[in-house]
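2024-03-11 09:14:02 DEBUG pipeline.ingest accepted 1 chain
2024-03-11 09:14:02 DEBUG pipeline.ingest length=290
2024-03-11 09:14:03 DEBUG pipeline.predict start
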Amino acid sequence: MHYVTAKGILSSKNGMNIYRGCSHGCIYCDSRSTCYNFSHDFCDIEVKENALELLEDALLRKRKKCMIGTGSMSDPYLPLEAELGYTRRSLELISKYGFGAALLTKSDLILRDIDLLREINSKTKCVVQMTMTTFDEELCRKLEPNVCTTKRRFEVLCRMRDEGIPTVVWLTPVLPFINDTEENLNGILDYCEEAGVYAILNLGFGLTLRDGNREYFYKQLDRHFPGLKEKYIRTYASSYEVNSLSSRELSKIFVTRCKNAGIVCDADEIFGYLAEFEEKSDTVQLSLFD
């Protein structure tokens, strides 16, 4: 871990990343790609030491309330967050100034902040997004080794359901020849239905491989799935988009089950929902004639 002084914290679309890099160790992580210009080891987490000051200043300058998103490039609930508490203090600011929040994570550490999530959601909208790729627990520990497994994430989603906090599952990436099976898909969809998720985002059954990410992924294939790297190379060569050969069949199952369960699965609709600020009021306006 090391600290840096950042120039800004919110993107043009009101997204923020307090941390840069990740220690979850997911074998497929696109954020490892060289295009993101990491000047340090990916597991040496960069902490924006002035993130809270920057966030408060940015929120004060906003003319309109909006949703504040986090987790697109680095999980806001990395293990070091348990000690530093930057994400929690960010949520305190978001709640204080009446903004909404949309958080994307793989970690059950988010349960620590359930009080703030509930508080934000009572005033506007707080959406918890959880990535779920692999139903099989043993396989999940290989693909995402340093974070809680899918079953525990399911339990987090159920807690959010019970608290009335809306949830979205990111069903991505799906790795060809590894977890691109009907059994895996149906297992995750069963979890989603039981947890009452609002939506499931799937951007295609496959993954993307760029320079930096590809090399790390192939190294992990050699470690956990001997011989599979060669199959990837034969099938996909150096393609950026690596789509499952079962994409068509899996997509049919996915769309049919989501529609039958009343779960939103259209990507544009989901992104629109995540960006839409909603203001709630518990004030009952009485008629002048009451």
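2024-03-11 09:14:41 DEBUG pipeline.report The first strand starts at residue 2 and ends at 4.
2024-03-11 09:14:41 DEBUG pipeline.predict end
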